[in-house]
Specification:
The complex is a heterodimer. Chain A contains 1 helix and 6 strands. Chain A is mainly beta. In chain A, strands 3-4-5-6 form a 4-stranded antiparallel sheet, with no helix packed on it. In chain A, strands 1-2 form a two-stranded antiparallel ribbon. Helices cover about 25% and strands about 30% of the residues of chain B. The chains are: A mainly beta, B alpha+beta. The interface between A and B is medium-sized, with 29 and 26 residues.
């Protein structure tokens, strides 16, 4: 079970969080994006090895979304931050 | 105590003043406080304790602890019975009942033993080879195999005991309370770090409990007791006995299984039977010790063949002679100490058979001093006997150990104490993803590189000398504490008596001479022999993982603790490769089995999931309502009166509401309070319809889509104030909608000034519906609720029956209706006031079933229609979709496939004959007589009997449904073998113009 450092609550058990998707995606504009852009945003995901940025929802805690840089091969959590903050550590 | 013929008059850690009575296979025996079931059985001369898994061979006690592969028993009776418990791990208590397993009709005479005679028919991979064909007969084979192969019996009654979970955090977790673990915990504990120390046994000391040694010229157990006492006094140290560290997970989380009450006949004083700890440690120190390996020779499974350390444990810790005359067979030096101890316990030592050609001089001197003869360069090639060993055959080993030579001689004995070297218990280390290294000198795998923040010390690290164990423990404790931010004072290792190095000779299986037959068992629990490894190799299963699956080597409750290394070494030999090149199988969690009850903890029965109750729950219950679940909620279905069936009750209620008036508890609807100066803009983006122009004090129905353009949820939005809205969601999607909105507000649109919170539990909801709803309402409020003051889709903050309330004029039933929200504490008073005030208008309470009928009659969609595949247009909300503004999902909702020809659209369904109920979940097809596969046109999503129309109705989604209105189709349910001809209609059956709700 992972331990995720919530920027607001400190280190908490994974069971308090829900995985909330890929944090490297940029959401297409609500008014100007094309169907193709939306299609790619909704359906296409990379599956990169190594450090990857993802969103976790502190659902059973403060209910804030947390950006987590996690090495998906080792489960090491390199850094966490608010959804619009810069993550330290390498990789993306 | 007489009867314990193999118990010594003194010695050992048992309390001879406390006799305990127990039964094994129905026969009564006595043991002592401090015994295990295994030691007590041996004390009584019981050596045959089970039958093996595949060949049903007689089996005895092989080990003395967690490594035991053989002596699995069925413990306790009735609801508390547990199968496959090693007798070596069962602390004896008065009244203990155990039975042997895997035998019929009795342990001594077992029909299944015919398998041993037919062993040529049961090679490795037997099941795969024999039962492959014909596949359709597999259920029959399986039935037969399950009957003869099953080990113990699972209980058939519910577990009467409680189990607990505990979460803990510490700076240093020490797994194993032998000398290295105690030393680690002592240093770390004195530094002030929060330490958790656990050990699987009832007392601390590990191997020192059964291998007498000295520390600072005193018995080592004195040091153990002093240390345990000091640790017990330290407030920052948690000491857990009877607690196995059994699983190591990511981020230094270790699961400990504490057996709180397994050593008692039943848990006392509401204590749990087990307590499962999930410990998150900054640093972990693994001091898990080592497990002795067997030597592999023909008949090495006979009762009486035992690990040398186990025989030593029975002698030293329990004062029990595991036999009268023993042959000690070893490939290393540790068995010499065991032999001397066995002799001191009164067991005659026939000889030490040492596979090594030149054992260290110290070993030979030790044997000579004790008057024990040593045969070097020899091996036991066979153990003879039937239900117990009665002699062994010994031959000389040739130089490379690949053959035996010379004259065989037989030695009489009833105990063969074997030592094939020692394997550090690296299970937790490997679970933590640490990398192992093969140590040629030890002939064992030892920890090499750590992956997580852990380190190993003592025998678990391949260090067997006591002073080395202690100094490694002190060092590990100091390092772990300092890594965790504490200053640990250095501790000098005390002076200890020395034990010789192990210096094993690699001997993975004693060769079988031509003149002998017999099975050489590698894995006693799974009946895997040395020859099975050869068979697996010849048939191409050469990776250790394949070897394991093909032969079942290393499976079962003991997970090959005594067999894995020999097995993979034999495979390495076959492959002509070095042992490290072959590698080990993956060590998986858990190290020891965890009862299902301990995994569930308190999350059983009604506590598997939360139960949410309306503040009016007790009233519903008191008035005879049966309940149904909606998500976690319990909802009152109806209120049967005077002998009514449930169906009669809800049909009456649904009719009554349309004719007069009723109230229903709608507290389960999700409610979200949304605030901020951009709240209206936020809603505009979230819903398909516009909210910017919604006036304060007005409600509006809204539909939201997912990003992919499919309908997500619906509900009402009320503008409470300029920058404050109340959103309702469906009961089932309340949590998901909240998360969706939070995500958009926090992550995607942080520029919007909007905040939200769930207020589902803060407002209890009562819907008042029916033609006389306003009349009733006027009796309980002083506010103006006239149609002018509070028109359809209006909102007021007011007082109802004296309670502050929010009043929404919205209608789910299609009748003149109001939804009243108040604080939960006022709900009962308001509910009762409405019933009282409405008595003159013949008000009734109605339940969720009648509410559902009313909404189907009105064509409102719920979960069956919002099924994750329907678009807004499919459900008839196409015109609600604003073209004036973008909203979530609008782009992908425009995809070609989600529009146009063939979409399944919401329709109404009426049985052609006017009386047949439309089958629940039925498929809609054109012709039941058509050739299969019959094209599926749609499905029934809701159905009920409509008491107001007098015939059954249904809702469905149907391909090109709106164009098919008037058509006759078939609602077909292969599941219930029903087929009903239905006419397709508009989904709104009652008052399509909406005159009733505006009335």
């Amino acid at each position: 079970m992972l331990e995720i450092k919530c920027p607001w609550c400190g280190p908490r058990a994974q069971t308090e969080f829900s995985y909330a998707g890929d944090a490297t995606l940029t959401r297409p504009s609500l008014d100007t994006a094309t169907e193709t852009e939306w299609y790619e945003h909704v359906y296409l995901r990379g599956n990169p090895r190594g450090p990857h940025d993802e969103l976790w929802h502190h659902a059973a805690g403060c209910r804030r979304f947390v950006k987590v840089r996690r090495d998906v091969t080792t489960h090491e959590i390199i850094a966490t931050a608010g959804p619009h903050e810069h993550l330290g550590g390498g990789g993306k | 105590m007489t009867g314990q013929a193999f118990r010594n008059a003194d010695g050992g850690g048992i309390d001879r003043t406390k006799p305990l009575t127990f039964t094994f296979d129905g026969k009564s025996y006595q043991g002592h406080c401090g015994d295990t079931l295994a030691s007590a059985l041996l004390a009584n001369g019981v050596r045959l304790v089970g039958r093996s898994f595949k060949y049903h061979r007689p089996r005895g006690i092989f080990g003395a602890g967690v490594e035991e592969p053989n002596a699995l028993v069925q413990l306790r009776q009735g609801a508390r019975t547990e199968p496959n418990i090693p007798a070596t791990r069962i602390e004896l208590y008065d009244g203990l009942v155990a039975t042997s397993q895997n035998r019929w009709p009795s342990l001594k005479f077992d029909i299944g033993a015919i398998n041993a005679v037919l062993h040529k028919l049961f090679p490795a991979g037997f099941y795969y080879k024999t039962f492959m064909w014909p596949a359709k007969l597999w259920p029959m084979y399986e039935h037969f195999i399950r009957h003869i192969a099953g080990m113990g019996k699972t209980p058939t009654e519910p577990d009467p005991d409680d189990y607990a979970h505990r979460f803990a955090h510490c700076d240093v977790l020490v797994c194993g309370g032998g000398p290295a673990g105690l030393a680690t915990a002592l240093v770390a504990g004195r530094s002030g770090a929060r330490v958790v120390l656990c050990d699987e046994n009832d007392t601390f000391g590990g191997a020192l409990r059964s291998q007498p040694q000295t520390i600072d010229s005193r018995p080592a157990m004195d040091w153990v007791r002093d240390t345990a006492t000091e640790l017990g006094r330290l407030e920052n140290v948690t000491v857990l006995n009877r607690t196995t560290a059994t699983a190591y997970y990511d981020h230094n989380m270790v699961v400990l299984d504490e057996r709180v009450a397994d050593h008692k006949i039943a848990p006392e004083n509401h204590e749990p039977r087990h307590r499962l700890w999930q410990v998150r440690a900054q640093e972990v120190v693994l001091t898990t010790g080592a497990i002795e390996r067997p030597l592999i020779f023909a008949g090495n499974d006979r009762p009486g063949v035992m690990l040398a350390s186990a025989a030593q444990t029975y002698a030293n810790q329990f004062g029990v002679r595991a036999g009268e005359r023993t042959v000690v067979f070893t490939n290393n030096s540790s068995a010499y100490a065991a032999a001397v101890d066995l002799q001191a316990a009164g067991i005659e030592i026939q000889a030490i058979i040492d596979a090594r050609n030149e054992p260290p001089a110290g070993d030979l001197t030790r044997a000579k001093d004790a008057g024990i003869g040593v045969l070097t360069g020899h091996a036991v090639v066979a153990a003879l006997g039937n239900h117990a060993v009665n002699s062994v055959t010994v031959m000389a080993l040739n130089e490379d150990g690949a053959d035996v030579t010379g004259e065989p001689h037989d030695i009489l004995c009833d105990l063969v104490a074997v030592s094939g070297g020692w394997s550090p218990s690296v299970h937790l280390f490997s679970q933590s993803r640490g990398k192992l290294r093969y140590d040629d000198d030890l002939t064992a795998f030892v920890p090499d590189r750590s992956f997580q923040r852990e380190r190993s010390a003592g025998a678990a690290n391949g260090s067997f000398d006591l002073s080395e164990c202690l100094s490694e423990g002190f060092t590990a404790g100091a390092k772990a504490a300092s890594q965790a931010g504490f200053e640990a004072a250095a501790m000098a290792a005390p002076t200890c008596g020395t034990e010789p190095e192990l210096r094993p000779r690699a001997l993975w299986a004693v060769p079988l001479p031509d003149f002998l037959h017999g099975k050489r068992f590698l894995d006693l629990q799974n009946d895997v022999t040395a020859d099975d490894v050869g068979l697996a190799y010849r048939e191409g299963y050469r990776s250790v993982e394949h070897l394991k699956r093909y032969t079942t080597l290393g499976m079962g409750t003991d997970q090959g603790r005594t067999s894995n290394v020999n097995g993979l070494a034999l495979m390495a030999g076959r492959r002509c490769e070095a042992i490290p090149a072959v590698g080990t199988t993956t060590f998986r969690q858990p190290f020891t089995p965890i009862p299902m009850g301990a995994i569930a903890g308190a999350d059983s029965h009604d506590h598997v999931s939360p139960t949410r109750l309306s503040p009016l729950y007790q009233w519903h219950k008191d008035h005879g309502a049966p309940f149904t679940t909606a998500g976690y909620w319990m909802r009152a279905q109806a209120y049967p009166q005077g002998g009514e069936t449930l169906e009669e009750a809800y049909l009456r209620e649904a009719k009554h509401v349309r004719e007069k008036v009723g109230i229903v508890d709608v507290s389960t609807l999700g409610k979200i309070d949304l605030q901020g100066k951009d709240a209206a803009e936020f809603l505009n983006r979230v819903y398909i319809n516009g909210f910017a122009k919604l006036a304060v004090g007005k409600c509006r129905y809204g539909v939201m889509l997912r990003d992919d353009g499919i309908v997500f949820d619906d509900g009402t939005v009320t503008r409470i104030a300029e920058h404050r809205f109340l959103i309702t969601t469906t009961t089932l999607h309340a949590g998901a909608v909240m998360t969706h909105l939070e995500y958009l507000a926090q992550v995607e649109w942080p520029e919007l000034d909007v905040r939200m919170i769930s207020v589902t539990d803060d407002w209890t909801g009562i819907a008042l519906a029916g033609p006389r709803a306003r009349a009733v309402l006027e009796c309980v409020t002083e506010g103006d609720v006239s149609d002018v003051a509070l028109p359809f889709m209006g909102f007021q903050e007011t007082h109802i029956a004296g309670a502050a309330a929010r009043l929404y004029r919205i209608s789910f039933s299609g009748e003149q209706a109001y939804e009243i929200n108040m604080a939960p504490g006022h709900a009962l008073a308001v509910w009762e006031a409405l019933l009282e005030a409405g008595a003159a208008d013949d008000i009734i309470p109605y339940g969720s079933e009648a509410m559902n009928i009313l909404r189907i009659e009105k064509g409102h969609v719920v979960g069956g229609e919002l099924n994750g595949r329907t678009t807004a247009a499919d459900l008839g909300f196409g015109k609600m979709m604003s073209s004036q503004k973008p909203f979530v999902g609008h782009v992908l909702a425009g995809r070609e496939g989600l529009n146009g020809e063939g979409r399944q659209q919401l329709v109404g369904l009426i049985p052609v004959n006017g009386r047949s109920r439309i089958p629940r979940g039925a498929q809609i097809i054109a012709d039941t007589g058509a050739k299969t596969p019959i094209p599926r046109l749609g499905e029934v999503t809701s159905q009920c009997m409509s008491p107001n129309l007098g015939h059954p109705i249904g809702l469905g989604i149907l391909a090109n449904g709106r164009a098919r209105i008037g058509d006759t189709l078939q609602a077909h349910s292969p599941l219930t073998k029903q087929s009903v001809a239905v006419t397709v209609t508009d989904p709104i059956f009652i008052d399509p113009a909406g005159e009733r709700l505006r009335g």
